[in-house]
Amino acid sequence: MPNVESTLLFKWFNEVWNNGDESAIEKLFDENGIAHGITASDSPPGPEGFKTFYKSFNEQFSNVRVQVIEAVREDDFETAHCQVNAVERKSGKKVAFSGMCMARIHNGKIAEAWNNFDFLEMHQQLGHTLVSP
Predict the structure, then answer these.
(1) Spatial distance between the Cα atoms of 90 and 49, rounded to a whole number of angstroms
(2) Is residue 130 one of the residues assigned to a domain?
(3) Predicted model pTM
(4) Domain count, the chain
(5) What is the Cα–Cα distance from 36 to 100, expressed in whole angstroms?
(6) Which has fewest Cβ within 10 Å: 25, 67, 82, 127?
(7) Residue 131 lies in a domain
(8) Mean pLDDT of the chain
(9) Which residues contact 77 (CB under 8 A, 6 or more apart)?
(10) For position 46, which CATH number holds?
(11) What is the rounded average pLDDT of the residues 24-30?
């Protein structure tokens, strides 16, 4: 296993989310990159499409911290197991949930990412209830 801090995903979560550096999206996300699982299917590719999710999440939450717990690298793929902590701006409630991100790396940037974060856990911590169909 690689040293977690040597992975592009660690750099991504640290610079973009922990440091709140929106300009790092341009540096680390491919111009045609796709972020499955967190962007709408009709979002434009690349940094602009990701920034829609980024801005929306940051409008709803403050003090966002993403800890990369483990990371695996093989060839041009990296996978990271993460713990997310944040505070909902509206209520002041803290949330903590985990997730996984697998990314295909091309020319030192994220070309495609598959995200699976436990947003259900996040919503339950905020007191939201599920409606059965």
Answers:
(1) 25
(2) no
(3) 0.93
(4) 1
(5) 12
(6) 127
(7) no
(8) 95
(9) 102, 103, 104, 105
(10) 3.10.450.50
(11) 98
